[in-house]
Amino acid sequence: MEPFVFFTIAAMYIKMVTLAKLYQDKVCVNNLHYDVNFCKNFTPHNKEELEMKATVLADAQLYSMYQALISTLPNTIASFFVGNWIDNYDNSMKYALLITAIGGTFEALLLILNSLYFEWGPAIVLTSFIPTALSGSFVFVLMAAFSYVPKVTAPHLRPIRYAILELAFFFGAPTGQYIGGIIIRTTPIGTNSLRNYVGVFIFSLCCYSFCIIWVLVVFRDKETSEFLIDEDANESGESERRIANNQKWYMVPKNIFICENALNTIRTCNKQRPNKKKLQLWMFIMALYTIAIFVYGTGAILFPFTERVFDWDESKFSEVNSINSIIGNLIMITAVFTLAKKFKVKDLRLAVIGATAGLLQTIIRGSLLNEVAFYMSYYVGSLSSLSSIGMRSYISRLVPKDELGKIFSMIASLESTIELVSGIVLSALFRVTVLKGPGILFQILCIPLLYPLIAIIVVELYYEGYNEDNSTENDENKNIPIVSPSEGSTN
């Protein structure tokens, strides 16, 4: 699973900064008709040019919001159906991953066309995201990946396995950004192009093509599910209610959009559970949603923020962000192995550390507008991903394994709206603050970031003791199939 996640994330992030520049350049040249040299260098030399730059940044950010509108609704609807489908059909994970990779391939091809024909307006670029909107985009990957881990990993190893999966996410992002920053400053392909957007999108296309090949050749969802069913049957005398894949290949994806799938997902997330587990579940679902909005939203506005505050170009930002993100991720994975494996720190304690780190990182970025503080914020926030690792691990202990697909489906359905919510809210705030107070945006973000920290502390202090009986049912002494990190990286 991890190779697919790594290359999918790399394919997404390699084009993130390039897309921002493509919107900016097309707005600057095609919409506002500013001088081409100014649009290419984008360095203001007087107050008038500073205002021109702020106008371009604000208008280009609107297209990111429109992109979110195109992507959000189809993904949100699809995610309600996919969770139950993944839980009940063999090979469903394989189809989910394959559909995502194919959609990404078509998106990359359309972006290449929009780059080759630079005279096309920025609104035409938005049509490139229709394939990923219809194919589930990254929502399918999220549900498949986070449902896959607890089904093949013992409870006491789940924080580590989730950390490895998160590592694929967080190494894929800076790797993609770094490569994109290198490619975009090479000789442009196509007439009238200010930068080499085409080269970046070709690399994204190659990543998605690799994902398609990997799913078809390497990934074996059916064998994994059969192994787990046999183990669970020996342990409890009851097999999981998965439907054997003796149907034709085209019948499994056909069963996605059945109303019962969506209803089962909603029922599972809202049914009454002992020891206030329903309350705990929803507290953490909303906490994960808050963190996801913060992570995606700040990732989208961080580049124009550094353009405004530090006058960085896309290459400088890609280099700084990718290198510091990789170093921060190494710190994170070292901390997870040390705290969870050696010192036996529980998942909720890891989550508290992560939520605190994310809050401190945001305070620094909003309050200290200098490059030294910005660099420091990467290392202060290097442990912030522990919050999602700890909460996902706790959720996997909170509910039975055969319900995890539906639970993570609900989480993914909410997270599919992140692009829309963060796009509208942060774009509006960015337009208001970009000229006179760019740091205010991060200071405002500190307020919602308090909720995950409070939710984790409340659950740990008041509710975790209720779950001891449930966790012992899945104790490591039982014969639960365990996949080691090295094995997991190849499946």
From TrEMBL:
It comes from the Eukaryota. Keywords: Membrane, Transmembrane, Transmembrane helix. It is found in: Membrane. The chain crosses the membrane at residues 95-117, 123-150, 162-184, 196-219, 281-303, 323-340, 347-364, 376-395, 407-434, 440-463. InterPro entries: MFS_trans_sf (IPR036259). It is a multi-pass membrane protein. Residues 470-491 are annotated as: Disordered. One of its GO terms (cellular component) is membrane. Its main location: membrane. GO terms for molecular function: transmembrane transporter activity. This is Uncharacterized protein. It comes from Leptotrombidium deliense.
